[in-house]
Amino acid sequence: MALVERLMHEPTEPIDQFIRVHQFFAAITEMLSGQLTAAQVQTFYAMTAEDIVDWNAIAALIPPSAQTANRVMFLERIHAVFILAERRVPLYSTPAEVRARLGI
């Protein structure tokens, strides 16, 4: 499985592979503020090649650093999508739906 499934806590994922949504976005926030590198975040979560595919797809959508307000809104939206996905809210209940919501 990939990053989306790990953040959604898909039943097919081993429990020890789940990633806590709020913790993950705290790490992303620290990365964007320059306190962590992408490699450190990827290592901490033991990301696989499949995880990196989702990671890269999401990262490609992040607005440029000069667009601070747009970046903040983008990250809040991504965070919201995964919070809804974790609870299996309708339209956010499958990995395919979540990827569609994310635009990846």
Number of domains: 1
Question: Taking all residues together, what is the mean pLDDT?
Answer: 95
Topology, number of strands: 0
Report the helical percentage. 55-70%
- The number of helical segments is 6
Structural class: mainly alpha
Helix and strand sequence: HHHHHH
Strand % is under 5%
**Separation of the first and last Cα atoms:** 16 Å
Rg over CA atoms:
13 Å
Low-confidence stretches: none
* Sheet having the most strands: none
So what's the overall shape?
globular
What's the layout of helices and strands?
Elements: H1 3-8, H2 21-32, H3 38-44, H4 49-59, H5 68-86, H6 95-102
Helix pairs in contact: 2-5, 5-6
Structure, described:
With 104 residues, the protein is an all-alpha fold. 61% of the residues lie in helices and 0% in strands. The chain has one domain. It has six helices and no strands.
Features:
single chain, 104 residues, mainly alpha, 6 helices, 61% helix, 0% strand, globular
Question: What is the structure about, briefly put?
Answer:
This protein is mainly α. Helix content is 61%, strand content 0%.
